[in-house]
Amino acid sequence: MDSLEWTRRVFRLRMIPNRVSSPADAATLLSKVLGITTDQIIVYSLAITPNNWESPPSRIATLRFKLVPPSLRDCMTQSEWRVSLPGAGHGDDLILDTHFQGMTTLNDVDPARHSVDCIAISGLASHPFGSWQPRGSDKTFMWIRDSLPLVVPGARAIIYGYDSDLMEAHSFQTISDIATSLILHLKAGDWNLPSSKPVIFLAHSLGGIVLKDAIVQAADREKSISGILDRVLGALMFGVPNLGMDQSQLMAMVEGQANEALIRDLSGESSNRYLRQLNTQFDGLSFTRTAQILWAYETKESNTVIQLPDGTWNKQGTPTVLVSPDSATNNQCRKDKSVTIPINRDHSNMVKFSRGDAQLGIVLSSIIEVCSKRLPIWAGASNLAHSSNKIGLISSSTHDTAMHTASTTGDFSDDLKVLGQLELIMTGIKELHDSLYSPELDRRIDQVEEPFENTFKWVYDLPAFTTWLQEGSGLFWIHGKPGSGKSTLMKFIYKNELTWDLLHDWTSDALEIKAGFFFHYRGTALQKSFEGVLRSLIIQLLAPIREAFWRQHGELWSDFEALRKRQAGLDRQIHDLQEALQRTKSKMFDLAEQKSHQADTEMSIAAGYRVEVTETKEELEKSEKKICESLEKVAAKRDSTDELLRPLANRFRPYATDPETVLLAGIAAQFRALQHGFIRTLENILHRILDQDKVKMDVVLFFDALDEFNGHLDTLSRFLQRLGKRPSTSSTRIKVCFSSRPWEQLRKYFSHCPGFRLQDYTRHDIEEYAAGKLAHSQVDNSLISPLAPAVITRANGVFLWVGLALKELLNFVVSNPDAATRENLEGVLQRLPDDLHAFYALMIERISSSNRRRTFALLELLIRQTAPPVLAADIRDAVLIESCNTFDQAILELQSHRRCHLGLVEAEKDLRLRADISTWGGGLVEINTRDNGEITLQLLHQTVMEFATGLDFKRLVLGDRAAISHENGHSLYLKYLICNKIDERHFFIRRRRPHVGSDGLTQKIFHHAEQHELTTGTSQIDFIISIPPDRFKHDFQMQLEFQHGVEDPASSPGPMTWNHLFLLYFATLNGLTLCLRDWISEHPGTLARLCQHFTKLPLLNNLIFQARREMSLKRHLKAMEMLVDAGFPDNNDLEFLDNYLGAICGIEFGGIRVTDDFAEMSKPVLHDIANIIFHLPKNVQQPWDLLRATCDVPGCVEPHLQTSMIIQELIRRGADPFARYQSRQTMDWVLGFLFPDSLDGHKSWDLGRRYYVCTTLLSAATWQHATPDSWLATVTEFEKAGYDTGDIRQDLRISTLQTVSGAAWAPSVRRPAWLSKPTTFRNEAGPEVTSNTAGSGDTGPGDTKNKAKRGFLRGLLNRKKR
What we know:
Elements: H1 3-8, E1 11-16, H2 23-34, E2 41-48, E3 59-65, E4 80-83, E5 94-97, E6 102-105, E7 116-121, H3 143-146, H4 148-151, E8 155-161, H5 175-188, E9 199-204, H6 206-219, H7 223-226, E10 232-238, H8 248-254, H9 260-264, H10 273-288, E11 292-298, E12 306-307, E13 313-314, H11 325-328, H12 332-335, E14 340-343, H13 358-371, H14 384-390, H15 413-436, H16 440-447, H17 463-471, E15 474-479, H18 486-495, H19 497-503, E16 511-518, H20 530-596, H21 601-607, H22 617-642, H23 645-652, H24 659-673, H25 678-691, E17 697-704, H26 713-723, E18 732-740, H27 744-750, E19 755-757, H28 763-775, H29 788-795, H30 799-815, H31 822-831, H32 836-845, H33 852-864, H34 872-880, H35 887-900, H36 906-921, E20 925-929, E21 935-939, H37 942-948, H38 953-958, H39 969-981, H40 998-1016, H41 1021-1025, H42 1029-1035, E22 1041-1042, H43 1058-1069, H44 1073-1082, H45 1086-1091, E23 1094-1096, H46 1099-1106, H47 1113-1125, H48 1134-1148, H49 1163-1174, H50 1182-1188, H51 1204-1212, E24 1220-1221, E25 1224-1225, H52 1226-1231, H53 1247-1260, H54 1268-1280, H55 1286-1292, ...
Parallel strand pairs: 7-8, 7-9, 9-10, 10-11, 11-14, 15-18, 15-19, 16-17, 17-18
Antiparallel strand pairs: 1-3, 1-5, 2-3, 4-5, 6-8, 12-13, 20-21, 22-23, 24-25
């Protein structure tokens, strides 16, 4: 390489100290270490590295040299150089390179403005940085670095590099290997965390295939990896060979090289199952995750390469299209051109833009379009309290601390306050405990293996540990390798009386409390989450105080409850008598009205209503007197009970200010308030307990397996640090002992803490363990015992490795008795890998290839299971149907298996079950037996869970089949549970159902169906559609109503079978958007024809209001849009419209929910739904009529309870607010709330809601054709209640002197606090309407009719008031 070429190259400088804050400073630093002047270095960018392991993070720069530094002239051909900083320590070198591999940040963004990360992935045989630069000698511009951050607000630009060389390549990595590396880099940059910024990818050629493979891999892994997908907004794909490419020339170049298999995977031949499967899964995942994908394709041919006589290759071959438009757009250029971008360049140059390039503007605009997408709307983010209530976190009791405060002869307010405090503690603390407690919180410590006899006793001889127990404070860290016995030791310490003897201080009067939490990654969500920690600690810390309080005041509380029940009975009697008195007075008023209007028969006919009272005046007066006498007697009894409050209050008064009482009362009140969401409330309660200054407490906490926490370790680490640091005012002293692996993330927080490394002290314990294992074996171990020291040495402190190695040796002796020599056994031991994951891989390799699919299925089922644990027999049966694609195939397989077991006793069946699991599990699965004889399974160790959830696990077990298999544990559970959901009388599988109730079984089906789509990007449409229709309808309780005379939609032309109908119902109820998409795609035009046979088919209601809310509402809205676009007629789903309007009503009236299952929705979500409705393929008047038509359905929410936003949108889109519906104006429909055709046909609305209806409608448009006379009674009613009617009268041209009674109107003084008049949207044009005078002297042809309406209105309002 000559000097000129050197100066044209772009370099990357890494590990720049954080203190270097400007390009000029970076140039100065580098010039000093290279011995050149600063002006010989041009630094184009300086940014903070995305690596999360650096603290503080270093910086990274892109730069060029004007000359070759003398110190580098002898090594110019290298691609990486290390240069030492003066005075820096070992490992603190600057790293200069040209390969740009890994993540390179190209710009910094102000944290307040940082909104999105754009990550670019280069293509095949291209440079990570140079492939995005224009050709030529000018290397000063690179559009991703220099233009994108300026144009896309708040964007941070990053490029990702990997080895994609074609010639002389020695890497045999596959596309999946490169994708795995990308995932790990994304994880290292914290893009898997909720706190990270949204991401958009820019991918060229092979980079797009790598990205797709990474997305597919990540979706099917545990949350620390799949969390990456939660942040993906979309991608812009440049010339990605989705359907393959012409790679004949490339194959010639790599023939015989290590990377030949990688190039073969890019083939466009129909036999390339890898690309087809990858397309299917990526399309599904981008759809379910609502990611926007744009496809750019080349429109110029590219020169192919040819080999020259000297053996080199040159781009002088015949021009051809390397990636066709169909392949580059995944056929979207034929289906949806709106997501495609033609670029008039060849394949290589389509991403090389110069400054000011017109094509660059189009690309940047497309990036802005994707970046402007909102993040997915995750259910529960703003509704935590509500969702918590649904699962029992918040008491549903309607009782609060408010008690009877009616006026009495004595003043008992102080007594009520004292007893109110007692009630708050007794009920509130019980609600807290019942809401937080779950048996699973204590289950893990019982599952941890008991220590082997005579092991771990040495821990009480360690001065560091015993001194900390007796005199220390803060944190104590026990760390060790995986499998070294950390959990067993922690259980030993936690349960051992010696621990508490050492902790106890007999001179202290403080309350001594112990608490512990053992994390369990293989367990339930509560066993590995921060929520579980908070729940457990609060319960354990409060337990001694709560129990002591109950013992002291439980009897008093019982007496108080008995008195309250007596008072409640008397209050009900008083209420009933008061209602009876009100009804009697109303009848007396109606009787007087009836007499005054007896002659006005036209009124009764016109109104369609007649007030009639049958009792006489004397009878009503007598009834009134009797009710008053009874009311007086009951009220006297009620007052006398208040006298009993004082002695009860006096019993508690001396304790009302006790420290324990004040502490418990504050906690109960805080929990009931739940002001900041559930988790935040628990955090505040824990802070209150630990920071309180009322009760002296000495607290010691034990945490096991921090590395099994299912969240970011920084969160948990900071939590532990804060636990050990209490404010000086606190009366609580805390010390915390915890265990974990010695991960770097934990070292940076706890390396200064006292503690010890477990494997340094366990050699004697391991010797005892090994001797015990050999002594209890049934095999002659005379040849193995001499190898025990070698086993122990190889184990290096890991108990688990010892157990596995001894098992290998014993199995060899049993399987090869003739070859069981000392030499052969030493060979077996020598071949065993030291690393546990490598050991597990060896165990997998020993499983026969014919059983590998079932091995994969078994381990997948164990890592995907939900609580409660599934029984072994159920897991075995689920494994058996792993290859079944239809319901009938699965049933036949299960029936066949059962027939093979006919005649066997239970013991024999259990033996076969254990044999199957042992064969498939290869030693990685433990078989356990419960006390009741049930057999359960679990993975051997947490390290096996990590192994089975690793990115390369699937390829290791299934080999090449992994690339084309989309099954996982969720799909296996789904198929098996559906088989068991079907009635056993028709499809008998076995006598015992899965270990879960009917409702729980249905919920598990729903869960696994949705998770299968979200983790694989594929649907189970073939299996679901194959379910027998009659069983589907029976077992899944479908709610359908046929058109008159229709019995079976299959009787109509076209593919309208019951199976299709049930699939749609099942898919919408479970939010299976991929199932819906696939069905609609395969059956165009069928949905509208199918719906013709039903008057009720609640697909939209299922999808939006009934579907499970664990996932994104945005995905459900997308599915709703698909149904509407496919021709779903909304009049089949009036229940959806009812719930939708009810949701809007709930927003306006403080979050009222229509049903217990209806989750509150935000206005933006409701507006998105409205937009879908507005875009129905019908005329613009239809939406208004559609919403209004729900009034015809008894019990539906009236149509005008919409936010002004949506009403105005309706009018803006052309809906006519004056249109007639069934011969009546919209205004008449509003009056219909007061003049219904049938009093039973409408709900009874309170005055506030009717006032809201009127003001909202009047704010949206001027009601030019309204008849003011018909509004007088309504306006007068509002005024009597104190509502402001000035705007209503002005809008309707009603005189301020007009009232129903003819009396002058006076301005009101009250306006509801919750009501703010919506922004007006008025049509000021049009003639002014002059209304008839409606006073007492009405004249004209309409007088009689108006008088009749007013008379009717008075009677109706009186009835509504009653």
